[in-house]
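Need a sequence for this fold. Nothing fancy.
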C-alpha cells in the first residue's frame, strides 16, 4: 500500500514538470526567437521578411541579409 502513495507522489512531481513546458510554439514566439518583430502586412523599409506571424502578419528582422 505504501508503494501506491510513493507512485502517486512521483507521478505528481513528473506532471508538475511537464506542465511548465509548452509543446506548441506560436508563430509569434518563433519570430521572437529569430530576433524578429511582427508587422501587419509587409515589412517596412529597414526590415526584411524572414517568416510569418500568422494571417497577414510578417516576421521582419532589421538589417540586411547575413
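Here you go.
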Amino acid at each position: 500500500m505504501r508503494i501506491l502513495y510513493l507512485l502517486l507522489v512521483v507521478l505528481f512531481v513528473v506532471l508538475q514538470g511537464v506542465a511548465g513546458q509548452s509543446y506548441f510554439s506560436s508563430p509569434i514566439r518563433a519570430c521572437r526567437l529569430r530576433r524578429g518583430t511582427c508587422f501587419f502586412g509587409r515589412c517596412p523599409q529597414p526590415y526584411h521578411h524572414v517568416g510569418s506571424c500568422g494571417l497577414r502578419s510578417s516576421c521582419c528582422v532589421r538589417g540586411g541579409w547575413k
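For context: The longest helix spans residues 2-19.
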